[in-house]
Amino acid sequence: MNVDDTPPEAATEAEGRSYSAPALEKGLDILETLCRSEQPLTQKDIAQRLGRSVGEIYRMVACLVNRNYLSLVDENTYGITTKLFELAHINPPTHRLLFEATPIMQRLASELDQSCHLTVYGQGKQVVLCKVDTPSGMGFAVRAGAELDVLISASGRVLLAFQDDETRRLRIEESLQRRPEQADPQLERTLASIRAAGYESIPSVQVRGLYAVSFPILDTQGRAIAALTVPYAERIDQSQRKSIPEVTEALGAAARHLSTRIGGMVSAPGISAAGRRAAAA
Q: Which of 19, 84, 127, 150 has the smallest set of CB atoms within 10 Å of its CB?
């Protein structure tokens, strides 16, 4: 087949793959740069980080200010506004999950006197969708919006374990591209154990003295759309502190309740009786 014989649909697909929108890409680059910065940046700072000139970005910056994605912090520095955060939470699936999760998480934190957080998977990492601090004000917590590793954390492994084979494989590949040093030849065996138990419970490999317990929030197909986690911090001044088994039981009940509230499954097919008991109310 010569070039002239190329089917129209194949040509259209090739054009779609090669098509680019330079102005849109510049705007997204600017937003991503400011989102990753802990402080406001000047146009010169932004241009340097993007490898561009100020002349290439100044119109785009002005447009983003006019659309309220950026704000002028002082006379020459720019910061990200809350608009992206607001748009993300307007998204119906996220809004429903947060709407149902918040009161359940508040009750859980109050019952256990431990913080808890909800994470979702995205491009080789986890993102903390929301969190509730410990009521006593003393304990370990992560901030909403934080990015967490997948392969070495309890919540990340839960998000991998409760997926179909192809999705799990792709997510492992994405996570390894981001953190190749976290490759583990025993990972598949570990994930199989998590599926059998219905949850993950491990000492933290990042914070000494912390213990993480995590359960999946399941959709109608038994796949994890989120992970609900308690980072268990021991208090040496409290003799009546809830034990890890008690935390596991309460967290399992909360995860089961949340899965039910969003119309998902109570437990994934094939988990053990012990896993079902831990997740039962």
A: 19
